[in-house]
Write a structure and sequence with these properties.
With 480 residues, the chain is α+β, with helices and mostly antiparallel strands. The protein has a four-stranded antiparallel beta sheet with strand order 1-2-3-4, with no helix packed on it. Helix 3 crosses helix 6 and helix 10 runs antiparallel to helix 11. The chain is elongated, with a radius of gyration of 40 Å. The two termini are 77 Å apart. One of its GO terms (molecular function) is efflux transmembrane transporter activity.
């Protein structure tokens, strides 16, 4: 009766384990519910610069060459490539878990049985049996030699291993998008620094031109002082303005050097001259500056795609974590040679094989598994919020880029008219000064206003280019 009850208990254990595990196995996934607007502030153009290759978007061959150099040598790019390799290796590792793990094994040992143990008594009697020969007699201590193959194979009953593989695959794809994101960011940084350098070159040219004009004006006022038509105060005011402008020249030269060094750093080089166009005013804007529609962000922006893939990976992690509560079936087959005498190890009679199957389920470590599951669910929610944040940031960046291009273009046209008016005012002031109807302060003020307006015009042109670059990056361009 006791034997029969024990038999039923043993048979019922697997069912109890499965039932207990199933109580915790409820499929749950996290999703991001975010609805994008149909257009960007009423812009309905479905074309997008996102799919334009770098060489088509940027018409400047010097800039394209800098970007090509950076992609081949920039440390961030090289690091991103290694992250892709790491993700690929992790994918192969998790895929291999679905296959049997086969090892070649060779081991040797020795064991002495006591006289009052089951093996000791059994081996003693066996050695007196007429059914065995001398080679089969068991020594004491008993050596043990094994050479063969041993395997361990976890049967993926509940999809745990497959879900881990899916998570690794999603992260591998995300690492590829991460690599593209680094290229996009690097392209934008180089373009921004390049146009900043062109603007500084233009500013330097403007400053040099004004230095020449101010030196001329200083010589004139010195001559006038000698003739009694000007005072020492006027000479000092003109001298101070000239020194101020010369100071601007050195400040601008320092900014040029720092920007060149920045470009050298981004392209993986040291102190070398940066080949570039002559001026920001002669540089050509990209022919197409269309953002497309907001839904294209989901297809084009590498950071959004990477965040979406991370969300998929986290959902697969949740399923794998829930499967940890369920029983796991592991098979451990083996085949090889086994003997207690080294000379007989490779005898045909020493061939041995077998297979063991084990069904295990967590019992006392369920709190640990529950904590792991809760952590995975929390991480998946973080992935959701990160995905939403990237979409919101992308929409905002595109909107800023579109408005920046439009507003800076309008500002540039206004600034051109302002500069024209200031040049006219300076010309009139010079004429009036020569006939004694304007004082030297009006000349100085007019000269300074023209210089400031010319510098601001160059900066505005730079801002137009920077807005175009930011838009290109915001819509997901710059990595093709």
């Amino acid at each position: 009766m006791l034997k029969k009850a024990l038999h039923y208990i043993l048979l019922s254990i697997p069912a109890i384990l499965v039932t207990t595990g199933c109580q915790n196995y409820k499929v749950a996934t996290t999703t991001a519910n975010i609805k994008l607007p149909a257009t960007y502030t009423g812009v309905t153009d479905t074309l997008s610069i996102a799919r334009l290759p770098i060489k088509q978007f940027f018409a400047d061959p010097y800039l394209v060459n800098l970007i090509d150099t950076a992609i081949a040598a920039n440390p961030d790019i090289l690091t991103a490539l290694q992250r892709v390799e790491m993700a690929k290796a992790n994918l192969r590792f998790n895929a291999s878990k679905l296959l049997p793990q086969i090892n070649i094994t060779g081991n040797a040992g020795v064991e002495k049985y006591g006289d009052y143990t089951m093996n000791g008594v059994g081996n003693y009697d066996t050695n007196f049996s007429p059914n065995i020969n001398n080679n089969q007699r068991i020594p004491n201590p008993v050596p043990n030699y094994f050479l063969g193959f041993q395997s361990s194979w976890e049967i993926d009953l509940w999809g745990k291993l497959n879900n881990r593989k899916k998570a690794a695959y999603a992260r591998f794809l995300a690492s590829n998008h991460g690599y593209r994101l680094v290229i996009t960011s690097l392209t934008a940084q180089i373009a921004q620094a390049y146009y900043q350098l062109l603007a500084l070159d233009t500013e330097l040219g403007i400053i040099k031109k004004n230095i020449g004009l101010q030196e001329n004006a200083l010589e004139i006022v010195k001559i006038q002082k000698q003739g009694g038509r000007a005072t020492e105060l006027a000479v000092q005011q003109f001298q101070a303005q000239l020194l101020r402008t010369k100071g601007l020249e050195y400040s601008t030269r320092q900014q040029i050097k720092e920007t060149e060094n920045r470009l050298n750093f981004l392209t993986g080089g040291f102190d070398r001259p940066v080949a570039r166009d002559s001026s920001i005013t002669s540089a050509a804007l990209p022919p197409l500056l269309a953002a497309g529609i907001p839904s294209q962000l989901l297809l084009n922006r590498p950071d959004i795609q990477a965040a979406e893939l991370e969300l998929k990976a986290m959902n697969a992690d949740i399923k794998a974590a829930r499967a940890n509560f369920l029983p796991s079936l592991t098979l451990t087959p083996y085949v090889g040679y086994n003997a207690f005498k080294a000379a007989l190890l490779f005898d045909p009679g020493s061939v041995t094989y077998g297979v063991l199957g084990g069904l295990t389920a967590p019992l006392f470590n369920r709190k640990m598994l529950k904590a792991e599951l809760e952590r995975t669910i929390a991480e998946s929610k973080v992935a959701v919020y990160n995905y939403q944040k990237n979409i919101l940031a992308g929409f905002q960046e595109v909107s800023n880029g579109l408005n920046g291009i439009e507003n800076y273009n309008r500002f540039y046209r206004m600034k051109e008219q302002e500069l024209q008016a200031l040049n006219n005012a300076l010309s009139v002031a010079n004429d009036l000064y020569l006939v004694g109807r304007a004082n030297y302060l009006e000349i100085i003020t007019a000269q300074r206003s023209v210089l400031d307006a010319e510098l601001e015009l160059a900066n505005t042109k730079r801002n137009i280019f920077l807005s175009a670059v930011n838009l290109y990056q915001a819509v997901g361009g710059g990595w093709r």
